[in-house]
Each structure stands twice: as C-alpha cells, then as structure tokens.
Design brief:
Number of strands: 0
Radius of gyration: 22 Å
Length: 149
Amino acid sequence: IMFFTVGCLFFILLLQRMCLSVREHSGGQETLFGGIKGSVYKHLCLKIVSTWILFPIWWLLSYEGFGVVSDPDINTLVTASLNIFAKGAYVLYVQAIHDKYSGENSLMHHPNPKPMEHRDAHFAAARLGPAGAIASIEKTIAKELESMS
C-alpha cells in the first residue's frame, strides 16, 4: 500500500505538471481538463492521462490490491497489455502529430491540408536534413526534365 500511495502522489504531481504545461503552451487559453476541444498538445496530454490512469485502477483490482482478480498470470498479462497499449497509443499519436504538423509553426491551430508535394518535401527535410532534401528534390526535377526530353 505504501508504494501504491507514493505512486499515486507522483501521478498527481505529473497531472499538475501537465496542467501547467497545457496552460503555458496555450498562453493561458486552455486547461488540461477544460472541455474536449483544444490543441493537439492538450490532446496528447489527455491521451497520456487516460492511458496511465488505467495502471493504478488495475493495481487495485489485481491480487496485489483488493484481490478482485487473483490469478498472477492474468495480472502479468493485463499489466503487459496495458504497457503495450499505453506506449503504443503514445507513439502512434506522436507520429500522427508529426505527419500532420510537419512544417507548422504552432500546435495550437489545426493546419490546413497541404499538397502532397509540400508534405513530401517536409518529410524529406525531416528525414534527410535540409541539404539532403534539396538534393532529393533536385534529382526528382532532373528525372522529370529528362522524361520530358
């Protein structure tokens, strides 16, 4: 119970830090728990909270907590599944943010859709660096010019 309590205290501190981060990031325009709509940064923090809160809930239900579920194998399976789900959801959401907001100046406003060529150039710059992206674009232009000849 002592470790559970300490873990919950750290979780509360984490929540306070995320609340402060959302408020700072938005220039005071939004709060972590102030409605569903908001910036992508707020949504990322909410996804973290909504997946991490499952761990103490599971602990309370497991044989280590109140023993509602007493099978140690199920405990191991659920704990591993929660870890995979929480980390997987985080990675997929961060990748979606990267794909959608690449080249944007802010995470506060949803970006307008970009032409595929524009997105490809940003992805190439992110993957290859500016010099590599320019070289890649130059090769593409050279190939297109060659095919037109």
